[in-house]
Structure formats: structure tokens, C-alpha cells
Amino acid sequence: MTVQTSDGKPVHKRIVLKISGEGFVQANERGIAIDSVLHIARQTYEASKHGVELAVVIGGGNILRGAQFTKTGSCVGEATAHYMGMLATVMNGLALQDALESLGCDTRLMTAIKMDGVAEQYIRRRARRHLEKGRIIILAAGTGSPFVTTDTAAAQRALELEADCLLKATRVDGVYSDDPEKNAHAVLYDVLTYDQVLRQNLMVMDSEAIAKCMEHNMPIRVFNFRSDGNIEKAVLGYPVGTLVCRETS
Description:
The protein is of the alpha/beta class and 249 residues long. It has a single domain, classed as Acetylglutamate kinase-like (Carbamate kinase, 3-Layer(aba) Sandwich), CATH 3.40.1160.10. 33% of the residues lie in helices and 17% in strands. A nine-stranded mixed beta sheet has the order 4-3-5-2-1-6-8-9-7, with helices on both faces. The model has no long low-confidence stretch (mean pLDDT 90).
């Protein structure tokens, strides 16, 4: 499926797409599922064909969540657990890179932690140059620092790379008034302000990520990546999911 705007061009020139670790595995499972990786890769590839510059920030919760080591009595320190989670994002990044390249994409995997044997170190100017050359860049290892979520890393990279929009791919259709998987009466919002998200404690992204985007007026679109074509639609500016921005009118 190919989505077209009236003039066949994407609304945004440069996008940062945040995909959580759950995108790399079937629901309620752990590890990496090749079919799930290919599903993301195909959607990303179709979106890239419109000429948009695309950077993908990867989560790693499908492999390891730092929180599982923070319980009382754990022999693994919290900072160490966060570093382990960063390495999990690199594993996902390698899988997505190969999947994209199998479709004919030119890619670069960049990490915030230096590991020359498997990826380039993230350098902002180099990342921008890759984007300008039409390469899809995959950004792993968060910011390279513990106690920083991959949501906040995505907001940080979107600002550094001067993206036009931050896309947050999730397993639900957007931002709801409550957890739609637990409350059948939860309401799906079309548009929200940053203030509304923070004030109502809506689970869009963590509060630090929202605050960064609010301060610099970086719009966020939250949508369901499991629906075929939604990544492409979001890149082209279709009103899929929920838009979080400064004003709702």
C-alpha cells in the first residue's frame, strides 16, 4: 500500500521515529521475532521512499528492562541495569538494520556507546550528513547515560537533528484517557497539548521527554505501528493516532 498526499510529498522533511522494544516481538512475548522486525522494516522502507529523512530510535524492553533488576535484594545495581538495557537496544538495532538492508535500504546503525566493531558512534553532524544522503539512521543505546529513558533519548535526538516531528509508534491507536487494554470506555484523543498530557499524567512518553518537546515546540504524533501503513501515513502527515502539540486549535 502506498499513501499519497495531494502533491505526493511528505508533510515533514525530517522525522525521528521512536519504536519501543515491543515492536520487535509478538504481544506478551520476549526476545526478537523476525516477522515483527520485517513488519517494521517494510513500513519504514515504504515511508522512506517518499524522500523523507528518517532516523529511528530503538527501545530494548523486549529483551531486558532495567526495572527488573531494581527490586530489593537484586545483585545488579540500577545504573548497571540501565547499561544492560542500552545493549539490548543495540541488538534490536542490528536486527532492524539487516531487515532494512534486505529490502534495499541504505542504513547506518549509530550508538551512543562506542562499539566500533558493530556500529558507528553517534556524532550529531555525522548523523545529519547520513540523513542528507538519504540513509536511514538507526539510533541505539539511548543517550549513553543511565537513568535516561529511550523516550527522552528520542526527544533529545529529534531536537539535536532539527527534526520536524517526533513519531512515537505504540501498540495502541494513540493517547487514551485511560489504558484501553484495561478500560473499554477509555476515550481516544485526536489532539492534546503538552500541558494536558503532563497535567492528566497521560502515558504518552515520560515527563522529561514531554517537557523537552514542550520547551522547543517539537510536535509528537502517537500512533499504532501494528496497523499496516501507519508509519507511512504518519510521515506523510495523515491524522493517524494522537497529535501532541502546543495548541489544540
